[in-house]
């Protein structure tokens, strides 16, 4: 094939890609119209039976065109997720008139390139208004920025699939009047970032956030005699390495973030757990109203009376009201040895009858009780379809 023929094919592919984007934009407009209908008729955002039928039909149609079933499924999982999130955002905006800001001032840990920075970009990409990023050096500073009205929102990492919960954030949430208004998960892919090409064996000093070191402990053990220097954030580590311009130092963090500092990766996928994700909370001064059509989560904190079985009794309240608990975290109460504060995530909306009943019962039977926030559930679990079965039907 000549270079001219290759270029002609590339032009045709580019033209098709442009048409694909046009069709996707049209599809998004239609799904927004669907959301309007759901608002008027109080219909839930997700209809997984319909999603299943849709995927089966698309797999069969794709098969006629020689497209692999798994390729079709993965492609439309992304399209459906985008549709669900857009519809949820539209419903949430209608339920909270006046909440949209022309400028969203958001406080987060670190600076450009940190995982909190990347998570902030992802979350507010679906929200109207410009984004003003406010990098901070500690979780306390982040909270204070919002409390003092220097920021409208804060993005806080709460847990990681590899290193577990971030206890300092839980402690901050207990003592602030801010409310959780949203959540998101962000994939964490640690890479070894350097200024210039060098062999891993030549690295003498590594800079990273302590959480990154914890998540990549197996990789660090294999490196051997390398000095590790903790930084306040992954962005601070990247900046340090970028300024040093040395061939024996490296930072550990996001490859995407590293590019913002002129760094490039010489090794990737460093985490102990390859499916590594961090969950973030978005907090603000006022709670949000989550429409009942939107799947919701509620996070609460409580301490039980000091008697045998008190925690079990509290959890039975959730079971009796058919409320699913997704997380239970305990933290020691400062100044009260051997006493615990319990943080609980549940699936449910505070406006729903069973949830209201459960919250009333829990408040009556606990020593301390506080709802930290009710917010849309943005973990969109893909509808499962067996591709082989779909083709066989």
TrEMBL record:
**Keywords, ordered alphabetically:** Amino-acid biosynthesis, Aromatic amino acid biosynthesis, Cytoplasm, Isomerase, Lyase, Multifunctional enzyme, Phenylalanine biosynthesis
Q: Give the UniProt record's GO annotations in the biological process aspect.
A: chorismate metabolic process; L-phenylalanine biosynthetic process
An annotated GO cellular component of this protein is:
cytoplasm
Q: In which pathway does it act?
A: Amino-acid biosynthesis; L-phenylalanine biosynthesis; phenylpyruvate from prephenate: step 1/1; Metabolic intermediate biosynthesis; prephenate biosynthesis; prephenate from chorismate: step 1/1
**Keyword Ribosomal protein belongs to the record:** no
Q: Which PROSITE patterns match?
A: ACT, CHORISMATE_MUT_2, PREPHENATE_DEHYDR_2, PREPHENATE_DEHYDR_3
EC number, as in UniProt = 4.2.1.51, 5.4.99.5
What reaction does this catalyse? prephenate + H(+) = 3-phenylpyruvate + CO2 + H2O; chorismate = prephenate
Q: Give the protein's biological function.
A: Catalyzes the Claisen rearrangement of chorismate to prephenate and the decarboxylation/dehydration of prephenate to phenylpyruvate.
> Among its keywords, does the record have Amino-acid biosynthesis?
yes
Segments forming domain Prephenate dehydratase:
105-285
| Sequence ranges assigned to domain ACT in this UniProt record | 299-376
Q: A single GO molecular function, which one?
A: prephenate dehydratase activity
Q: Which Pfam families match?
A: CM_2, PDT
Which annotated residues bind substrate?
10, 27, 38, 47, 51, 83, 87
Q: Which protein, by its recorded name, is this?
A: Bifunctional chorismate mutase/prephenate dehydratase
